[in-house]
Amino acid sequence: MDSFFLPLVAAALAEWGDKTQILAMMLGVRFGKPVPVFIGVGIAAAINMGLAAFGGSLIASMISPDAALLFLTLGFAFAAVGAFVPFSDTDADAIWGIGAITTSAIGFLLIELGDKTQFITAGFGAVSPNWILTAIGATLGVMIGCAPAIILGQTLRERAPLTSVRRSIGVLFAFVSSVLAINAFSLI
């Protein structure tokens, strides 16, 4: 169950205030149809999180369990640092005229490549006995994290303190990374 639930929670938290959530919000506002945007985001998330979890499982077969735990630690550390790096939402302004599902899938697929959620998912894939459950959990987490943005759109952006939320989650991820590092180095 940890292979599914922990990546789900981590991915859902990692999406809050992230550029991918801003893109999902912009797509929801632009198309005015949450369901096709949600489907497109789901397709892209499944591809990205599947690749990440599978990649993590491949790496795990080449390294020790402690090194795999350090790999997960790095995923959380990158996510923590990324939470404090400002980004421009003009990155998410590219909207193509190819329909809501296709635009959402392609846009989200591209912007999510190398994102903190993908690093965390790869880390969970490395420590999980079942990378498929990890991929499913992370995919659902991404979709849960993006759903409010797709549905509420600009209202969420104007009323929710997304920068503060993102930074708070960054602090949480830094703490998780520290605890994982202590365990990986067997300091406790």
TrEMBL record:
A family per Pfam: GDT1
Keywords: Membrane, Transmembrane, Transmembrane helix
GO molecular function: metal ion transmembrane transporter activity
Organism superkingdom: Bacteria
Membrane topology of this protein: Multi-pass membrane protein
Localization per Swiss-Prot or TrEMBL: Membrane
A cellular component term, taken from the record's GO annotations: membrane
TM region positions: 38-60, 67-88, 94-111, 131-156, 168-187
Main location group: membrane
Family that this chain belongs to: Belongs to the GDT1 family.
Name of the protein this chain belongs to: GDT1 family protein
